[in-house]
């Protein structure tokens, strides 16, 4: 699909990090962008800057998500592109590979449930409500009605030390991508999932500088942490290329090849 002023897009988690970068990049194409986020202060400010709208929403609520889509569609029309970036980390960011992180002994079910509710259930909720709206759209020239991009993590495939809940929640997003893409393909709706590696965003704030440097150095090339613009440009490429469907794409500078 060609993003331009005739298109409407929704970006969850649009008030920060990867979602913010993506909202800005989509708005730069001329498309009308609605930011869905819990952080109203930042969300309103970014929306005003990029000429979009902000919808305050907690992705764990059916009603709030439905109300946000209603508001966005009333302002911009039915979205053709939805990017799911809202999410939280579940645990420590600075754990040593050698120590027991204590996660199992802590048996913190509240954190586990909250993480899965936001990262996995929230993604499915937004995805399905968006797809139900997209099916009513006239197909574009090539038969496409819409595109949904989800955000998992390399933790979905590799696991992440100290973050079992996070890894599980992202594993769910990874695993549901292909079956959902297959279902929605018959409606001309594509579904792809991006698996970011270590991206420098507010989610990583608080990470020790030494650890940041070590992680960046461990990335074979380009030996730096990822940036929101790396993520946003992949979203734009996914929009451009109608032949990419049902994929889970790692965006990580090949960090799994890092020496351990
Ligand atoms: P971030 O913390 O900068 O932004 C996340 C945004 O989601 C925030 O604006 C927050 O308010 C919003 N949010 C959180 N819970 C919400 C809820 N219940 N309802 C609505 N909005 C909610 O994080 P980021 O680094 O930009 O992460 C974006 C996505 O990318 C997340 O899903 C994250 O798990 C994933 N990811 C990030 C990294 C990384 O290294 N930063 C790596 C892999 C995957």
From TrEMBL:
UniProt protein name: NAD(P)-dependent dehydrogenase (Short-subunit alcohol dehydrogenase family)
Q: Source species, please?
A: Brevundimonas variabilis
InterPro entries xrefs: NAD(P)-bd_dom_sf, Sc_DH/Rdtase_CS, SDR_fam
PROSITE patterns per the record? ADH_SHORT
Gene3D superfamilies, alphabetized: NAD(P)-binding Rossmann-like Domain
Q: Does the keyword Manganese apply?
A: no
Family from the record? Belongs to the short-chain dehydrogenases/reductases (SDR) family.
Under Gene Ontology molecular function, one entry of this record is: oxidoreductase activity
Q: Which UniProt keywords apply?
A: Oxidoreductase
- Give the signal sequence positions: none
Which superkingdom does the taxonomy of this entry point to?
Bacteria
């Amino acid at each position: 699909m060609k993003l331009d002023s005739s298109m409407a897009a929704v970006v969850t988690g649009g008030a920060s990090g990867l979602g913010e970068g993506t909202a800005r990049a989509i708005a730069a194409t001329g498309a009308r962008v609605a930011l869905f986020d819990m952080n109203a202060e930042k969300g309103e400010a970014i929306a005003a800057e990029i000429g979009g709208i902000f919808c305050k929403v907690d992705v764990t609520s059916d009603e709030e998500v439905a109300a946000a889509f209603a508001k966005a569609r009333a302002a911009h029309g039915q979205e053709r592109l939805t990017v799911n970036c809202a999410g939280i980390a579940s645990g420590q960011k600075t754990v040593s590979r050698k120590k027991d992180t204590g996660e199992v002994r802590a048996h913190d079910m509240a954190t586990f449930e909250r993480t899965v509710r936001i990262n996995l259930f929230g993604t499915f909720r937004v995805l399905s409500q968006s797809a139900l709206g997209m099916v009513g759209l006239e197909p574009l020239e090539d038969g496409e009605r819409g595109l949904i991009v989800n955000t998992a993590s390399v933790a979905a495939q590799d696991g992440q030390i100290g973050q079992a809940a996070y890894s599980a929640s992202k594993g769910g997003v990874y695993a549901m991508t292909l079956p959902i893409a297959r279902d929605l393909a018959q409606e001309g709706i594509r579904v792809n999932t991006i698996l970011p590696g270590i991206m420098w965003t507010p989610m990583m704030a608080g990470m020790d500088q030494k650890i940041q440097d070590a992680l960046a150095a461990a990335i074979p090339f380009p030996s730096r942490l990822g940036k929101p613009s790396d993520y946003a440009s992949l979203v734009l490429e996914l929009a451009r290329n109608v032949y990419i469907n049902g994929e889970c794409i790692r965006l990580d500078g090949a960090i799994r090849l890092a020496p351990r």
